[in-house]
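for the recovery benchmark. tokens below, seq after
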């Protein structure tokens, strides 16, 4: 599941405009860093400093990306935690399809 998430984010990030910052997902404890502070979005599984960190489970992420769960409801219900730059978090839709 996590490999599929990384592949999807990498493919979408390559076609999206740079995010304008560094965003980190922590999915079931595994970091996925999207560095969009340069000319393109670079995805890695390294842990590092980020302007915004989104913490969730692989199952919750699957439900959100499939449309089964509303992202705002997942945040309000505590299934997704967002720390840092909320504006950067709002740009995620372009990466998650």
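predicted aa per position
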């Amino acid at each position: 599941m996590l490999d599929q998430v990384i592949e999807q984010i990498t493919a979408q990030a390559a076609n999206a405009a740079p995010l304008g910052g560094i965003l980190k997902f922590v999915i079931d404890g595994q970091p996925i860093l999207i560095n969009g502070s340069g000319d393109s979005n670079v995805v890695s599984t390294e842990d590092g400093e980020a302007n915004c960190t989104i913490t969730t489970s692989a199952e919750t992420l699957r439900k959100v990306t499939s449309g089964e769960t509303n992202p705002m409801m997942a945040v309000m219900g505590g299934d997704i935690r967002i720390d840092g730059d909320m504006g950067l978090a709002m740009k995620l839709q372009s990466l998650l399809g």
